[in-house]
Structures are given as structure tokens and as C-alpha cells.
Task: structure prediction
Amino acid sequence: MPLWFFGWAIEESLIRHPKVLTATEIKKRLGISYPSALFLKRRIQVLACEQMPHIKKLFHSTLEQEFKNFKLPKDGTDITNKVKYRPVVHADTMVLYSASQRANKGRKRHKHKGMTSAIYLSDKLGGKQIGTLVHVMGWQNGPVLLTSISDQKANTIGPLIKESIPMNAPVFTDEGYTWLYRIYKNHRMINHSAKGKDERSAFSCERWSKNGVHNQVSEGLNGSLKSAFRGYGYIKPEWSTMYLNEWSFFKNARYFGLNQIAREKQNCTLSLQKISVSGNHQNQYSQHKFEPLTLEMRKTSDISDPFSSPEIRKFLEIAENLGLKDAMVEHQIFLLRENSKPYQRVKERKYNFLAQSLWQHLKINTFASLNEICLELQIENKNFHRIVRRWSSLNLIELRDLRRETQRHGRREYQIYRRLQTDLPEILYMKTKNQYREIRNEAG
Result:
């Protein structure tokens, strides 16, 4: 296949963006067979996938330079002038293709709720993923990052945000990202379901924008993406990453420029030559394919390997931290146990959420005041007492109680020194009544 075919397809895709160039149109315009046109389409998608790591670095560095030492005022304050003409990141999740009732053989999605239920078949039909769930991040008239995901859980979306957005950058979302508010200090949410005070209107007029906080950029990206992908009709979830990377690549090329993405024109040319002459195409495709979760994998998606981090494994080798391994195993047993009560799981999720928020605000190699962190997070001090004592018993932190010996019933004042530099290990915080009685008896 002549190399100018690649040049024409790239130029055509760049000019017509956000509309897409389909394999059928390539076949008609170049007068080639459909397999050849699809092969050309796949080559461009592989090229786009290879450039995405560098685009993410540009995305991160741009925000880091713009929002160095940046801090938004207290939540509820009008920040319109504060963020005006600045690259504020908007994040959202959308369903690109969904499982219809006909595809489910007439079964309605009455059991599951939310966007995740729209992309999977009924459990009785195997629970296969046939739709596409996309996470969108971008700012106004700027670049965009699109990722195909299997669910909307914090463990899925959190690493994507952490990889691409600096901690000081402002992030606007809807209220589906409540867990992000305690990690990113400049995170703001808009409530799309806000009720109106006037009885004549069910919803408030401020459900789209309030105090300068809105999510219209990501909503606009969602609309552009849906309109563009109507040209394909339907794509399988396995190929969703390649199609999304291709669409975002051409949008980012308009913002950053091809020279800045590829650094040199030679790098882009060498990539095209490498793609066009390579013989083992299936191996290149498999590197960028999306792997949907099966029904069994989705049932255990909350359970991850607690010993995957090298630093945690090294930390566990120390004799004084043998209790940490037992605590991590207890957490795994709690998740796998079928007879655990619903209220127990709710409490455990609450403690894990608070623990992650506190852990992110602890400084490494220096003591931090728990009261100051609580004021910053706007959470009462007593909510963290169980967590810090649990960490102290497992030697994850060094804890100083600043109360005087005479003030037995005074307010607790702690200073915390973080010993572990990696992410917080998953441990069990909740205990049963019998376990509390045993602890009290031992203490008494």
C-alpha cells in the first residue's frame, strides 16, 4: 500500500474532525477493497495509541504550570472570576453504545441501576459487555482524554484522574464523583438534580451552573463524541480504546500541534513506516485492545491483590509489621464473606473513604496536625480517631497524643508522622461487638 494513502487519511481525518473517517468511506475515496481500507484505518489507530502517553504528559504539564500553588476559596463561594479564561478540567462519564431491550431478549434492566447496567447483558444471558462506557476529561477549547472503562467505581476512575491531573488543578464534575472531593482540594461538583424552591418548577435553575461551577465542557464533549460515532453505527467494546484514542488524537493535534506531540517530524514518519511494514499486525492490535470484564470478574472487581506494591511487601518483611499482613488478610476475608451484614459494608466503606482522604493529606517525613487536616477537610476530629489508632497499632504511622495527663476528658490532639510512602494498604477498620468487648476486657 503506498505511503501517501496514510498521509491522505491522516490529513482528511484532521480536517474533518470532530467527524470521523470510516473504513467504508476510505474504500470509496481510494478505490480499494474493504479489508485494505480497514487495515489502513487500524494503522492510523495504532499510531494514535502510540502517541497517547506523550499527550498525557503534555496534558499534565500544561495544568501543572498553569495552577502551581493554586487554591480555590471555600466551597459555596462564587469562583467565576477566579477560573475565567483558565484551563479548568471537566470530567464526566457517558455511555456510547448501550444494550437494548431487544439485545437482552426482552429482559428489562430492573435489577441493576446506573450507566453500568446499560452496557451489560442480563446476568441470565451471561452478563457480556456489548456497550461502551467512556470516561471524558478536558477543558474548554483544549485537549481531551478519553478512556474506555468497565464501571464507574473509584478504583477504576481514580487512577485515570491521578495520572493526568495534578493535585492543585481545579476539577469540575457532577455529584457522581463525591469520593474525589477529599483528594483534590480544588474539586467542585454541580448537582444536576437540585430541586427548585418554586412549586411551579420541579428542578432548580441552578442545576446546570452555580457559583461559577458547571460541567458543560464535558457535556459538550459527550455530545460531539456521540454525534461523531454515529458514523460507525456500532463498534465492539474490544476495539473501543483504539477508536477513542484516534478521535482524541486528532482533537489534541489541533490544540498541541503535530510537531509538539511527535517532538520531531522524523518521529512521526518513522512510526508510519514501522506500522506499514510490520508483518505481525495482530500483536500490535492486542496491545491496545480493551478487555471487558466477565460476569465472574465483575462480581469480584472490588477485590484486588493487597500485596501487589513492592514497598508494601518490603514493609511486611519487617518483624514489627507482621500485624499489617493479618489486617490486610482480614479485609480480603471480609469482602469475600457472603454473610457480612449490609450495614457492616456501609460502615467499612465509610472508614476506607475517610482513611484515604486523611492519608492523601499527610506529609511524608514530617509531623502533621490532625486538627489542621480536619479543618481543611471540614470533617470532625472524632471521625478519624479509630483510623489513626488503627494505623498506629500497625506501625503505619507514628502518633503523638498532645493532651496533658490531667485532661483525660479533653479534646484529643494528635500529631501524625507517615512512615509508608506508597498508597495506603487496604486494611479492615470495622470490628464486631464481641471484638470490642474483648479489647475492653484486655484493657480493663
Summary: Residues 310-443 form one domain. Strands lie at 89-97, 132-138, 144-149, 171-174, 187-190, 209-210, 213-214, 367-369, 397-401, 414-418.
